[in-house]
Design goal:
By secondary structure, this protein is of the alpha+beta class. Helices cover 14% and strands 20% of the residues. The protein has a 4-stranded antiparallel sheet with strand order 1-2-3-4. A hairpin with an 8-residue loop joins β3 and β4. The longest helix is centred in the last third of the chain and has 12 residues.
Length: 84
């Protein structure tokens, strides 16, 4: 789990660079030319997500409940409409 440098306040849409460079992972990647999502688990349990092609761009911050609902929904096929 990651705590940003200098205890920067964490908020949705904050610059990803303010969360630091360590702790980002690419759990989803494929043959899309390197345009992947990167995720970081924060010290308080929330999850930050950013676009790997824009590592200084905004970070979306999800609560444990939000990221759990997203992952379980995706696994259950709820988001399959996005692929067609």
């Amino acid at each position: 789990m990651h705590q940003p440098p200098n205890r920067t306040p964490i908020y949705n849409g904050m610059p990803s660079r303010d969360l630091g460079t360590e702790g980002w992972h690419k759990p989803w990647s494929g043959g899309n030319g390197g345009n992947c999502l990167e995720a970081m688990k924060l010290a308080d349990g929330r999850v930050a997500v950013r676009q790997s092609a824009d590592p200084d761009g905004p970070a979306l911050i999800y609560t444990v409940g939000e990221i759990t609902a997203f992952i379980l929904g995706a696994k259950a096929g709820v988001a399959d409409f996005l692929l067609s």
